[in-house]
Every structure is written in structure tokens, then in C-alpha cells.
Amino acid sequence: MSQTLLSTANYKGTRDFYPEDMKIRNWMFSVMRSVVQRFGYLEYDGPILEYFELYKAKSGEEIEKQLYNFYDKGNRHVAIRPEMTPTLARMVAAKLRELPKPIRWFSIPNLWRYEAPGHGRLREHWQLNVDLFGINAWTAELEIIQIACEILFAFGASPEDFRVTFSSRKILNQFLKNSLNLNQKNEHDVAKLLDKKNKISKEEFETQIIPLLPNKQKDLDLLYKFLSSSINNISDIHGITKEVLEEVQTFYKAIQSLGLDRTVFFDPSIIRGFDYYTGFIFEIFDTNPINKRSLYGGGRYDNLVGLFSNEQISGIGFGLGDVTLLNFLQTHKLIPSFQSQKGVFLGFLGESTYFPALSIASQIRQAGILCETNLESNLKFGKLIQQAERKNYRYMLILGENEMQNKKVILKDLSNGTQTEFHQNEIIEKLKSLEL
């Protein structure tokens, strides 16, 4: 009776990472990690499994549709984390008085959401989270946006490859309340519609929003004027206080002083998470028409730690998913070639050379250099070269019986076929000169 074979297909919305894929993923993570660490951010992590109430408290009933949640063997309602921010807030609240301020933390967690997979969106992904706690001034927003830009620059992107748009929740709140004279409920409903404005047709947007406006078409015209305002004419909109206007304009002057004004622009139509963000908000877009989409964004949130503590502390941050980042890097052809394997392949010929080869390989590894060896002593010379080439090594060390007796070794450059012979005492020096 034949055995029924299991499917080799992975779970929908996830990815298999073969070694060549892991090279790219590790490279992406290392670049992101190096940038944020240069700004003084410390890496943290938390459990992939949390109590269900943690996410319900932050996001409400709607999050339940996207959660992978279940009851464990102790009948506890738990969920696989869909985002990192609730875990971060819990951890910060637990040691709030002990942590030196400002708190600069980052993480690259594995996250899960049950949703329809599509371009730039999967059920499982990794996400860089960068957060800053304890600074109420706009200088915190400036640092966060600078980091968000520096990450893409570190991958080789130019200022024209992406566009950063920013606004302030304070401006939006004052406009809705003071200019449109909306009550609290309509203010919330209008903001929600603005948040999804780009996902519906203009006709649908106007049909839904006009009934919420006291002066109907007149207010709609004013709303469109507000959404199209620039940093220079936003002051023409009545109902926004001088203090808030000056904060936004001073912030933009700081953007200009950093030379980021080719990339960063004021745009009051950016809404982003109305129920969540409380101050500055920003979003980053790919400018390439092939991948013209939102890449990532963030903003200030001042109320999250309050879910766990009576003490309040301001926070600001962003999240960059690996799927959208990979799409960006592929679109702009910024992924380097990982064809050549770092290190060296040590091939030995004959059983008598096996133990001497192991000793040489150990010395090479102790020097911090990758060294892979063949494990079969009966391989022909041609097979050894073929094995090294298939593993994408450029350099190969060859140890035969003659070399072993004379304390020599051969170094072969597989890219051009040249080879040199030298004493075994010189191996480490020679390999380090190749910058493997």
C-alpha cells in the first residue's frame, strides 16, 4: 500500500525562506538594525503569545476578526501577536520608573494577522518597530522621521525614490471643531471618512460626508480647501490656533535644516489612525509608478501606556514591514548580488589528509573566517571543484598528500582559475588579505 504524501505547499499568506531568501532577509534586518542603533536605540523583544485582552483593550472589537486567538490548555484566552505596540506599552509600563528617559527602543518581531493576502500584505510578516518615549516636544517627531528616511537612504534609495508626507492631529482636530463646528460624534465620523477617503470614490465620499456637515456644500468646499493646503497657506484656514500653526511651521524649518525638504512635505490630508494618534503623523510612499503605494508610517500616541499605568508618558514611533520594504527594494533594484559565498571551501584529497584538513579548518574558523569542507575522502579533484562552485565559493583551499607532507596548501581562485601555493603557517594571513 503506497503512502499518501503530504503537500509541500506552505500555509496561505506565509513564505518559505530558503538560504538565498534568508541572505536577503538577514541583510535587510542588519541594515535597519545598524541605522537605528546609530541613533542610540536599544533592541528589545517580547513573547509571540499574549493575553487576548491586551489587543482588545487597544483596538476594540474589530481586531478580533484579524487575530489568531484560541484558549490554551489552562483555558486562558490568548492570541498570536498581530502587532508589537501593545507588548511594548505593557513592558514600558511595567518598569516605567526604572527606565532612563527618553526611552529609545526598537524591535523586529514576527507578526500574524488573519486577512486576505495581497501585494505588500501577508498573514505573517516581520516588522521593524522604532519607538521613543518621554519627550513631548516636536524634536522627538523630527528624530523619528529622520530615522525613517535614513533607513531607506542606507539601502541606497535617493530622495526622489520616496515621499514623506506629514501633518498634525492638532490641526485636524481644531479644523473639524472650530472651522466646521462639528459636535463630538460628527467630528469622529468625519475623521473616519477622511481616513478612508483614498479607498473610495469621490462620489461615495461626498455622499457619506455631506449629511455630517452643518453647512453642507459650503463646509465641503472648506474641507477640500483644508485638505489641499500647503505649509505656506495653512494659516489661511480659520479656527487653527497660532500656537499649533507655529509648531508645524517650526517643525518644517527643522526638516529643511536637515536637508530633508526634497523628500518630506506637509500634507493635511494625511489622517492615519484617528483613534490612535494624538500629535504629528507621517506616511512614506514609494514614488515609482510600478509600486506607487504607502510603505510605512507612524506618529505620536500619548495614551497607550495609560492602559497599564496611572502614570502617563508620551510616545512616538513607526513600523516598517519587511514585505513592503522588499517590494520597494525590488522595484528600485536596490538588492545586491549575494551569489558569491563568503569564506573559503577547503577540499582534501585522500583519507590521510582528513585529520590535517580538520585541523586547518579549525584554525581558519577560530580566526573568524567561514570555512566549509568536503566530508567524503574519495572525491576526485574535479568533483571537489564542482562542489565548491555549486556552493558559490570564489576561493578554495586544496590539501592533497603532497601538500600535507610539505606543509603546503593551494589557494585557488575559482572566478579566474588562478592558484598559488604557500606554507600552512601563512593560511590565516593570506585569507585575511582577501577580506573574506
Description:
There is one protein chain. With 436 residues, this protein is of the alpha+beta class. It has two domains: 19-331, Bira Bifunctional Protein, Domain 2 (BirA Bifunctional Protein, domain 2), CATH 3.30.930.10; 344-433, Anticodon-binding domain (Rossmann fold, 3-Layer(aba) Sandwich), CATH 3.40.50.800. It is 36% helix and 20% strand. The chain is built from 14 helices and 17 strands. It has helices at 19-38, 52-59, 85-94, 139-154, 169-179, 184-195, 202-209, 217-227, 242-257, 322-331, 354-366, 381-390, 401-405, 427-433; strands at residues 42-43, 49-51, 68-71, 77-80, 103-107, 110-112, 124-133, 162-168, 264-266, 280-286, 294-301, 315-321, 344-348, 371-373, 395-399, 408-413, 419-423. The strands form three sheets. Strands 1, 5, 6, 7, 8, 9, 10, 11 and 12 form a nine-stranded mixed beta sheet that branches. Strands 14-13-15-16-17 form a five-stranded mixed beta sheet, with helices on both faces. Strands 2-4-3 form a three-stranded antiparallel beta sheet. 29% of the residues are buried. The mean pLDDT is 92.
Q: How many distinct beta strands?
A: 17
Give the overall shape, derived from the CA principal axes: elongated
Mean pLDDT figure: 92
- CATH second-level architecture of the largest domain: 2-Layer Sandwich
Q: What count of domains describes the coordinates?
A: 2
Largest sheet: 9 strands, mixed
Short description:
The protein has 436 residues and is of the alpha+beta class.
Give the tags.
Rossmann fold; 436 residues; five-stranded mixed beta sheet; nine-stranded mixed beta sheet; 2 domains; alpha+beta; BirA Bifunctional Protein, domain 2
